[in-house]
Amino acid sequence: MTEIFLIFLQFLILHLFFSTPLNIENYKNLNFNFSLNYFDIIFFNITIHLFILLILSFLKINLLAYFTLILIISLVTNFNLLIKKKIKDINIYIIIFPIICYSIFFEIAHHAILDWDGLAHWFWKVNNFYQNENLENIINLPLPQYPHLGSYIWSFFWKNSLSNIEYIGRLFIPYIYVVSLFTIGADIKNKLNGILFLILLITLSFDLFLFSGYQEYITFAYICFLTKIAFLKKKNFSDKIFIYTFIIIGSFSLLWIKQECLFYVIFFNLCFVFFVMNKKLEKFYHFIALIFIIILYFFIEKNIKGSIEYQAKINLSNLEKFKEFNLIIIYISQITKHVFIAFFKYPILILNLIILSIIFFKDQNRNNYKFLLVFFSLNLFFLYTIYFLHPASLDEMLPNTVDRILFQISSSGIIFMGRWLNKPSA
Amino acid sequence: MMKKKKKDLKVILILILILFILVFFRTFHNIYVIYKNDYQTRLTKSYGFCDKQGYGFVRSIIKKNNIRDNIRIINYSNNFASIDSLFYNFDKNKIYNENYLILLNYNNNHNNKSIIFNN
Lengths: 426, 119
Fold this sequence. Notes:
The structure holds two protein chains of two kinds. By secondary structure, chain A is an all-alpha fold. Chain A has 18 helices and no strands. Chain A has helices at residues 2-17, 38-58, 63-83, 92-111, 116-130, 149-159, 166-169, 172-185, 191-205, 216-230, 237-255, 261-275, 280-305, 325-345, 348-362, 366-389, 394-409, 414-422. In chain A, helix 2 (38-58) runs antiparallel to helix 8 (172-185) and helix 12 packs antiparallel against helix 13 (280-305). Chain A is globular, with a radius of gyration of 21 Å. By secondary structure, chain B is α+β, with helices and mostly antiparallel strands. Chain B is built from five helices and two strands. Chain B has a two-stranded parallel sheet with strand order 1-2. Chain B is elongated and about 80 Å long. Chain A binds chain B through residues 1, 3-4, 7, 92, 96, 99-100, 102-104, 106-107, 109-117, 119-120, 123-124, 127-128, 131-133, 137, 165, 191-192, 195-196, 199, 202-203, and chain B through 10, 13-14, 17-18, 20-22, 24-27, 29-31, 33-35, 38-39, 42-43, 46-47, 53, 80-83, 85-86, 88-91.
């Protein structure tokens, strides 16, 4: 019974924690020309807190103080909002949101275990932070080259929970995942369509295996949210500064989630610069900011870990084996086979293909189509390239990795489907 | 009247969808399992006692012998990741105690170590 209570409490803690600094009242004071829904504001807060936690991970600061401070501030501001009856637009989405969160939380709690990567790589880092070891100690752990932010936040919520139950710490992952889907779903004015859309997205993208210590859902959620805010209509200077800043902050945090996120961030921002941004000067500044965060990422990583390495030594000498043309054909066919398998394992990828075809035929804004097509194409190109350059055998690598690499970017197309459902003809 | 009926139908549909969510995630079953089995029991069921990752076995011998050092856990089955990370203590003085080993799914001779328990 205590455990069930702790799960209930953890949702409230997570929700309270991510309900500040922005809320439905104070964001209006910023006078933006675009309207944000309740879950957009929560995800903006998630982006802010994950970024702050990333900074704090480099410093030796008492995290309990930070955690308590945020909870108190959030409690006071949200309580004030409730008293002033500012939360008057409590709708069905706000009722369904905790139901979905709790359902996933209980599913995770039932199984409670960590799967391969969780045990072999990520939990070492989580345990390191949980037992008050610092970031520098990561170099003594298995696969130190893996980024630490996901593990750090996992340990943060584990350490600041009322129990020593490990999975309580990683419940922030399903929370972020559900919030990201609601940022799209809650925009749909017809509530029934909205709920059906959310259920469709969840049934197509939910995989308990990925909640057993993997970090894929964090990337999935970030890509979803960043795509959404990238396409918000930005009219004046303050709109643009706000959105561009969050895209850069979000991209920077994403670099510290998984190694492949470096490529996702580069591809996403390049597509954003070329197909969404209009003015040349803005494009230039955003591009400079992108280069700056990547250099900063490498600089900090090198300082902490001594060198920047990947799981396996990837270099051009691995291409020497492709002197035989047959081998190239075998590689392409094998990778393609697993790409197809991934589409059936995670049907949200099929949904993205459908969305892409609909955009091609129906959407008048060609830039939407170009953005999505180029983003997927670059990621596919990256996927094929990485397996050609990787020294390990394909049989070893492909079945366990292709689906996860593709899954992480599969949230980028759903924003467009959410928009169509909002059109009067839908 | 028509409008009210339409609204009622919408509420019923939303309730059915909520029920679908609860059934899809097997929420009631999950709550029942969490209520009936404590955290450690569920972990032992999932990771295995003598089989799979041998979580129950490792935990029981650590508890029984009041072991405070870090002991290497070697799983001879390649199908499972090691559960070393679940038991590792990062206290600087507690590097691995090389006098002991915990062997899981083991069926060979390991002459230079004395076997305390065998799973």
